[in-house]
Amino acid sequence: MRLRLLTDFRSHFPRNFFAPVLTRIALTDQTSRCSTCVLGQICLPVGMNADDVRKMDDLVTERIRIKKGQALYTLGEPLEAVYGIRFGTLKTHLTLEDGRHQITGFHLPGEIVGLDGIGEMRHVSDATALEDTEVCVVRYAELQQLSRRLPSLQHQFLRIMSKEISQDHLMLLTLGSMRAEERLAAFLLNLSRRSSERGYSSTEFVLRMSREELGSYLGLKLETVSRLFSRFAEAGLIQIRQRHVKLIDMAGLRQGDDRPDPADRPAAASAQMSGCSSASSSPIPGDT
């Protein structure tokens, strides 16, 4: 009875009302701004000239630190900011009616999260830390104002949103047309490319997500993901030790494994994309 009363009590509050308070860090050091950030070549300022990037320094005056398992934002929250990941990894996900989580993306340092909420001015998914993570806070109202004065910043947002749409199309292709082993191989190669872009090894990395989370993202059952990792290792394509992965045969991964896989292909495409395509209808900052 006591547990039921507590549950009923909690139901009257937003989902994140009882969540731990996020750690906010005010930036007072000029060396901690966009113009001096080591991620500038892959984050928001990429492609902008030095003078325009310096004008962005006053745009980011705060960072947030998120503990592993903690939510940065949740579905339905008003959109006040978008977030550039400084270090760590985030997952974006939706909660289905039966309580299951559908992963819609894994996000690495230098990537921007929260863009899909611009159209409705509310977040359309949850963003949760897969490890201790720090993000730069970009207030959306201030971003709009600066975009009106900096065409290069508005152009950059167009580029980022275009990239989001392209990634959505690629995920639809992955879920709708690829066999199970092709999906996992494509994911590993994608992670390899993104790791290389950040100056890390393209062949060795740590998977911050669980196999269950990876299965949710790829539309595969947990046992299928585990079996495919074993098959890839036996075929000499990868070496794996717990979450540490080493890619041995990149060409083999690109070709895919043509042996048939008996695993069923869950029809996850519609759930996967329901929270990802808002970027296509979102207003560009400074365009209103």
UniProtKB/TrEMBL annotation:
Pfam family for this entry, one: cNMP_binding
NCBIfam families: PRK11161.1
Name of this chain's protein: HTH crp-type domain-containing protein
UniProt superkingdom: Bacteria
Gene3D superfamilies: Jelly Rolls, Winged helix-like DNA-binding domain superfamily/Winged helix DNA-binding domain
Domain HTH crp-type: 178-251
Low complexity bias (residue ranges): 265-282
Keyword flag Zinc-finger: no
Compositional bias per record (Basic and acidic residues), positions renumbered to this chain: 255-264
InterPro entries assigned: cNMP-bd_dom, cNMP-bd_dom_sf, Env_Response_Regulators, HTH_CRP, RmlC-like_jellyroll, WH-like_DNA-bd_sf, WH_DNA-bd_sf
Entry annotated with the keyword DNA-binding: yes
Region (Disordered): 253-288
